[in-house]
Every structure is written in structure tokens, then in C-alpha cells.
Amino acid sequence: GFDHVVVDSAGCSAHMKGYGHLTEGGENLARRIIDANEFIAVLIENGSLPVFEGNRPIAVQDPCHLRHAQRIVDEPRTILRAAGCEPVEIDPGGMCCGAAGAYQLSHPTVAEQLGAQKAEQVASTGLTRVASANPGCEMQLKNHLGAEYEVVHPIEVYWEALETLDPRR
Fold first, then answer.
1. Rounded to whole angstroms, how far apart are CA atoms 158 and 84?
2. φ/ψ (deg, to 5) at 21
3. For residue 9, what pLDDT is reported?
4. What secondary structure, in 3-state letters, does the chain show?
5. Any idea what the Cα angle at residue 58 is, between residues 88 and 157, rounded to 5°?
């Protein structure tokens, strides 16, 4: 009975958008699925949510299920900019981090190599904070980056800005 089902995990939203062929009535559900990055970016762009000034750099890792499966690339950056951050690209081609759902379990050697490469890309920026919109990617990055790194969802970054920068709070 809801207009939207907002999903904050790129892998889950990509999967749920494909429900149309999986179950009876699945197409009705699939049409209502929206990734949280899409949802929040629209609210920012239409003025329903505030934009904060700033240019704090943050590395951006695009989950495959967001970038390649759903073609959602600009929205996380819109959210980060609205939070007063400046997104720093680590991989314009969007190479997989190696998590890929169960891939890291079925292909641990390749997943390990991909995770190490992705961590090197993050480290090469000199930044210790990276935004990623998928829990599998977040775990993979945390596994390959040192304790001095922080991996956060773009919406977490925006929430922090709301809590600390919004004068109405």
C-alpha cells in the first residue's frame, strides 16, 4: 500500500528492483523500489532538504550494484555535496571492490586481490574517509584499510551535516 519502498543497501535495492520476474505480484513491488540515494538526492534537488556549504574532501567508492546494475552515479555525489563535502573520485571506471554479494565467499582469492586494489585506490587519495553505499563494500573496504580509515554511507554523511550544521536543530 506504499508508494515507495526505500532501500539503503545498493545490492538489496538492485535485487529488489528485479523482483518482477521472481514472484507473482513482484512487478508491482519492483516498480516501487527506490534506492535511498535516489530518494534523498531528489529531496535535496527539489529543495525539501537543505544544502550545506563546505568543501571537506571525501573519497567515493561506487558499489557495482549501484553504479553498474542501477546506473546510479550522480546521486551519492549530490548527497555528499549537500552535506558540505567535495567528492574525490578513486576509480572513474568503477572496478569492483571484490565483495559482490557472495562473490567474496565463492572466489576468495580474486576478492582479496580486488579488495587490496580498491584499498590502494582509496589510500592514494591521502584521505581517510570514504563513502560507499553498500554494506558488502563497506565491510570489504574496512577489511583492507587500516583502522585510521572510516567507511560511511553517503546518507550517514548527510545526516551528520543535518545534526551539526542545520541551525534549526
1. 8
2. -95, 0
3. 83
4. CCCCEEECCHHHHHHHCCHHHCCCCHHHHHHHEEEHHHHHHHHHHCCCCCCCCCCEEEEEECCHHHHCCCCCCHHHHHHHHHCCEEEEECCCCCCCCCCCCCHHHHCHHHHHHHHHHHHHHHHHCCCCEEEECCHHHHHHHHHHCCCCCEEECHHHHHHHHHHHHCCCC
5. 135
pTM of the model: 0.90
Distance of alpha carbon 1 from alpha carbon 19, whole angstroms? 17
Report the range of poorest mean pLDDT among 2-11, 22-31, 96-105, 118-127.
Answer: 96-105
Q: Which amino acid, residue 154?
A: P
- Per residue in 81-132, pLDDT (tens digit) is 999 999 999 988 888 877 876 777 778 888 888 888 989 999 999 999 999 9
